[in-house]
């Protein structure tokens, strides 16, 4: 199965934030990410320059990670991957979300406008 067929992206909801906080604390992730507070994640949900995404397994519908993009309002059209974390093997998350987001960002430049991800 191609990576873009096995995962999907959806905007993070406030109700997802407890899961996001746990994903950051995951023993595999803890050495590589400084945990944010609930308030920091919550702020990104309402910041027009940032977009907080949940990565889900398409068929199971289970959350497997999250990504935060920044620079969406940048006049330089520069989009930054601000944060990412995973609850599954790094091999699953290593390519699929980032390849998918890269292609989407290059083609569309405004990932906030697309609900099909």
UniProtKB/TrEMBL annotation:
Protein name stated in the entry: N-acetyltransferase domain-containing protein
Species lineage: Bacteria, Bacillati, Bacillota, Bacilli, Bacillales
InterPro entries: Acyl_CoA_acyltransferase (IPR016181)
Recorded superkingdom: Bacteria
């Amino acid at each position: 199965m191609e990576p873009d067929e096995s995962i999907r992206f959806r905007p993070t909801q406030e109700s997802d934030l407890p899961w996001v906080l746990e994903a950051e604390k995951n023993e595999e992730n803890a050495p590589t990410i400084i945990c944010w507070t609930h308030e920091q994640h919550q702020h990104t949900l309402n910041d027009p320059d940032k977009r907080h995404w949940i990565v889900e397994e398409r068929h199971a519908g289970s959350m497997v990670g999250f990504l935060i993009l920044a620079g969406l309002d940048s006049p330089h059209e520069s989009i930054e991957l601000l944060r990412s974390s995973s609850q599954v093997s790094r091999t699953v998350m290593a390519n699929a979300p980032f390849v998918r987001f890269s292609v989407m960002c290059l083609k569309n430049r405004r990932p906030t406008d697309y609900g099909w991800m």
